Every structure is written in structure tokens, then in C-alpha cells.
Amino acid sequence: MDAYKDDYSKYSGNPKKSIEELTPKAEAGDGNAAWLLYRLYDSLSGIGEYDAQREYRSKSRSWLARAVSMKNALAMLRQAEIWTTEQQPYDWITKLYEELAQMGVAEGQYRLGLRLEKDFPLAAIAWYKKAADQNYIYAISRLANIYLEGKIVPRDENLGLFYCNKGAALNYPGAYHRLGDYYMSRDKDKAIAYYRRARDAGDTLAKEKLWKLGIID
Q1: Are 204 and 179 in contact (CB under 8 A)?
Q2: Model confidence over 89-131: pLDDT tens digits?
Q3: pLDDT tens, residue by residue, 159-203
Q4: 169: buried, middle or exposed (CB in 10 Å: 19+, 13-18, 0-12)?
Q5: What's the DSSP call for residue 187?
Q6: How far apart are CA 106 and CA 50, in angstroms?
Q7: Mean pLDDT across the stretch 133-149?
Q8: How many CA atoms lie within 13 A of 63 on its CB side?
Q9: In this structure, are residues 172 and 140 in contact, taking their beta carbons and an 8 Å threshold?
Q10: Residues 97/116, Cβ–Cβ less than 8 Å
Q11: Are 72 and 35 in contact (CB under 8 A)?
Q12: Cα separation of 69 and 27, whole Å?
């Protein structure tokens, strides 16, 4: 599911005009419009007199809550983030991630997995796999680590490498790095090639490992 479609840039040039345009849509139950109103009011909350800023903040929070009630995925993810920062009840945040996971939102599936991993590792892995099927890179990376480390389930080298290679196919630096670590004691030339790819994709730690190996190209 594409939970990250956000038309904010289309409306941000003239926030007040956009608010006039979007408010009737949101009032009619358009969750995306409600999410955009949250963002637009939030962008105005640091502008103008104190009373105006306070009103914008209030409206921003109100529209976020309404967007969440309309099951807008971006709003739900944002609300979970805010509640986490505010240290709101754990169950509130978990419930949001459960809803997102059931909606097919990869980030929700991954974050629910993180919450389940300690007590329900198999359930966590099942959610990670659903997110990985949508190419959500953090879930792919977590699965690679789980299977290669063998701490919460028996070590499975084939599955670990499968997810490493899946991440590498998406040009994820961490996947190249993990493959470099894996091959370092097995095939040094292959390990160096993976470290180079990790470095070229922006991994500074891989660059340091190459330096230690005397490779500065």
C-alpha cells in the first residue's frame, strides 16, 4: 500500500488559499484533505502574533485528530510519532500500529513487529515479512539480522542472505555492508566489493573498513 502519497507541495505555496479549498473536502470526510489541513495549519503555527499562532496550532491538532479518525495512514503515523515523543500510553500507540498493519501499511507492519519482537517473535517476523514484501527496507534489514544472528529464532543463513540480497537489490547501503561482513572471513575479494558498493551508496563505516584494509580508491 502506498501510504506516503502526500500532495502537500501542491498546496504549500499559498497556505491560506489552500485551506479555503481543502476545508469543504475535509468536512465531507476526505482524509487526505484533513491531513493536508493539519500540515498547512502546522506550517502557519510559527507565523504572526502569539494568538494567531495558538489558533493555528489548535486547528492543526484538531485536523490531525480528524484525519486519524478517517484512517489516513500518514496522519496515523504522525500521531503515533507525536504520542511516542510525548510518552503517551504504550497501548494507544500499539493500537495505531495494529490498525496501520491491518490496512497494509508497511511502516505500520514494521513498527508493530518491533513492539511484538520481545514477547512474540514469530508474530513480529510475520509482520516484518509483510513489510519486506512491499520492499520496506527497514523490515528487510531486520529480517536479515534476525536470521544471520540466530538470537530470537534459529540461525538460517540462507534466509539471512536472501534478505541481504533483497536489500542490496534496492541499493541499500546497510545490505551491502552486511554482505561485506558476511564474506570477510569467506571470500575477502567479494567482501571488499560489497564494502565498496556500501561506501559508494553513502555508508561511511564501510569506507572506514576499506581504509583499514588499505583501500583508499
Answers
A1: no
A2: 999 999 999 999 999 999 999 999 999 999 999 999 999 999 9
A3: 999 999 999 999 999 999 999 999 999 999 999 999 999 999 999
A4: exposed
A5: -
A6: 39
A7: 97
A8: 28
A9: yes
A10: no
A11: yes
A12: 12
CA–CA separation, 152 and 140 (whole Å): 16
In this structure, the number of other CB atoms found within 10 A of the CB of residue 210 comes to 18
Nine cell digits for residue 13: 505555496
Is the separation of the CB atoms in 53 and 47 below 8 Å?
Answer: yes
Distance CA 212, CA 207 (A): 9
d(CA 43, CA 53): 10
On whether the CB atoms of residues 76 and 69 are closer than 8 A, the answer is no
Angle (CA) 187 188 189, round 5°: 95
pLDDT tens for 37-82 read: 999 999 988 766 767 788 999 999 999 999 999 999 999 999 999 9
Give the pLDDT of residue 1: 45
Contact 7, 32 (CB under 8 A): yes
User: CB neighbours of 113 closer than 8 A, spacing ≥ 6?
Assistant: 123, 124, 125, 126, 127, 128, 131, 139, 142
